[in-house]
Design a protein that fits this description.
Elements (H helix, E strand, L loop, with lengths): L1 H18 L4 H25 L4 H26 L1
Helix pairs in contact: 1-2, 2-3
């Protein structure tokens, strides 16, 4: 059940990106939600297979998400 939630979030975010071409803030928010759901799936499989690599990858993904959030805030500031 937990795996299905992460996959549904990814599909919904991809559909949101494909339907909104002009709203850059919504696209960035959808990309952030995709990164969070991928991190959720990494942690889920890491716990399921008792492996720490997924948690380490999640830390790198969250750093990328923080940089993306900084870019989004910059876009909001200058609009």
């Amino acid at each position: 059940m937990d795996r299905i939630i992460g996959e549904i979030l990814i599909v919904v975010c991809i559909l949101t990106i494909l339907n909104n071409h002009r709203n850059y803030i919504l696209i960035i928010m959808s990309l952030e939600l995709i990164l969070i759901s991928i991190s959720y799936l990494f942690i889920y499989y890491s716990i399921m297979y008792d492996d720490i690599i997924g948690i380490i990858n999640t830390l790198f993904i969250l750093v990328i998400g923080a940089a993306e959030t900084a870019i989004g805030l910059t876009l909001l500031y200058y609009m």
